């Protein structure tokens, strides 16, 4: 599976440019916070980055290893409970994990006794967290740092979060906590204020395309550049989704733009293309063909609204346009959105699935036909 094979293993391999710079600086300054909160959409590299950090600080052949050698073991143990800032001031250059030493390999194979990944979806209660806190008070067994990577952190119960507060505030200096979540708003404020927060946001189209190019090159896949942009658009702002689509297209040998587009059934694009032909017959035939071939109207309307919203925000100057080319003005976008929302609500009561959408389009044409630009 490409998405496992190409999981970033070094800071440099992270295609999320903003996050890459932040992590690089923190590691170079050797001023890692003792608790992180990584938040952002699925498939943006939270888990991968957490593992890279765990490897970097424990690697046996980067500058973290040499800076440890220059400190005596006795001074290390004396300082165990002191704030790290008092002893970590030097900057280092070689911060990348080597990915070949014993410590790096054990993180990759999830067999490190000191790098503990737990899924809060199934270890969310107070007992689980108490065990974790107790364990965290011991020295790392074979590494320099004990790193706890807690995925789906928003699933931790309130009691358990409360139990964790003190440890997050004053953890043993050889411990790093990395909480990762897609739902930052479900993390209590008291926890947030004790963590260094890194926003992974959504994967940007340009970053996705750059990641796809690298994977395609390594896999010797010859794919049209235009199709890479299309994949990026279709990937729901997730690197993982994008690389999965690439793999699917490669397996199916649909590597030209036209083949790829057809295979992905890029509904939104095809819909807007038909809509912008300014011909009611064209768009109604498109919908007919779509529903005859088993298309899901509810999903289609959701996709259309999502795309219109992006266009609206772009045209209002709120966001740069990452969406598809929609040549409608703001007024037309708004009226189409209203009609589609109404159609969406009517889906439940319509005897024919495609009917509400057809009605919406007829109405849109009647009201706005003359304003549809080419
Ligand atoms: N920054 C990135 N650069 C390149 N590829 C990435 C990046 N982030 C994610 N990927 C791709 O997506 C896959 C999943 O990444 P990861 O598990 O780190 O995401 P996540 O943010 O933890 O997702 P989730 O919220 O679903 O747990 C990786 O194996 C890799 O193929
Ligand atoms: Mg994850
Ligand atoms: Zn290493």
Automatic annotation (TrEMBL):
Gene3D superfamilies: 1.10.8.60, P-loop containing nucleotide triphosphate hydrolases. It catalyses: DNA(n) + a 2'-deoxyribonucleoside 5'-triphosphate = DNA(n+1) + diphosphate. GO terms for molecular function: ATP binding; DNA binding; DNA-directed DNA polymerase activity. GO terms for cellular component: DNA polymerase III complex. DNA polymerase III contains a core (composed of alpha, epsilon and theta chains) that associates with a tau subunit. This core dimerizes to form the POLIII' complex. PolIII' associates with the gamma complex (composed of gamma, delta, delta', psi and chi chains) and with the beta chain to form the complete DNA polymerase III complex. It is an enzyme of class 2 (transferase). This is DNA polymerase III subunit gamma/tau. The lineage of its organism: Bacteria, Candidatus Roizmaniibacteriota. The keyword ATP-binding applies. GO terms for biological process: DNA-templated DNA replication. Residues 32-204 form the AAA+ ATPase domain. It comes from Candidatus Roizmanbacteria bacterium RIFCSPHIGHO2_02_FULL_38_11. Residues 68-88 are annotated as: Disordered. NCBIfam families: dnaX_nterm (TIGR02397).
């Amino acid at each position: 599976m490409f998405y496992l094979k190409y999981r970033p293993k070094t800071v440099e391999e992270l295609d999320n440019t903003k996050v890459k710079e932040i992590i690089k600086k923190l590691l170079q300054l050797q001023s890692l916070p003792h608790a992180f909160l990584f938040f952002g959409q699925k498939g943006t590299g939270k888990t991968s980055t957490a593992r890279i950090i765990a490897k970097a600080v424990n690697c046996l052949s980067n500058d973290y290893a040499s800076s440890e050698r220059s400190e005596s073991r006795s001074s290390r143990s004396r300082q165990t409970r002191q704030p790290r800032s008092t002893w970590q001031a030097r900057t280092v250059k070689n911060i990348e994990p080597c990915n070949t030493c014993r410590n790096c390999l054990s993180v990759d194979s999830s067999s490190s006794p000191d790098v503990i990944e737990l899924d809060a979806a199934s270890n969310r209660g107070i007992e689980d967290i108490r065990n974790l806190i107790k364990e965290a008070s011991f020295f790392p067994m074979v590494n320099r740092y004990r790193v706890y990577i807690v995925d789906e952190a928003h699933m931790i119960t309130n009691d358990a979060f409360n139990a964790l507060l003190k440890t997050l505030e004053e953890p043993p200096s050889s411990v790093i906590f990395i909480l990762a979540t897609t739902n930052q708003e479900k993390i209590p404020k008291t926890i947030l204020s004790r963590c260094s927060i890194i926003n992974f946001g959504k994967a940007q189209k340009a970053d996705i395309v750059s990641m796809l190019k690298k994977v395609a090159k390594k896999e010797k896949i010859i794919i049209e550049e235009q199709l890479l942009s299309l994949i990026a658009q279709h990937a729901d702002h997730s690197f993982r989704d994008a690389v999965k689509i690439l793999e699917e297209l490669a397996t199916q040998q649909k590597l030209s733009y036209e083949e790829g587009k057809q295979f992905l059934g890029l509904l939104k694009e095809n819909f807007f293309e038909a809509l912008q032909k300014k011909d009611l017959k064209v768009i109604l035939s498109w919908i007919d063909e779509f529903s005859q071939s088993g298309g899901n109207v509810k999903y289609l309307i959701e996709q259309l609204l999502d795309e219109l919203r992006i266009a609206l925000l772009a045209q209002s100057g709120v966001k740069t346009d990452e969406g598809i080319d929609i040549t409608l003005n703001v007024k037309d976008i708004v009226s189409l959105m209203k009609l589609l929302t109404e159609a969406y609500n009517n889906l439940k009561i319509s005897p024919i699935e495609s009917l509400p959408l057809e009605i919406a389009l007829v109405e849109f044409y009647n009201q706005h036909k003359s304003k549809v630009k080419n």
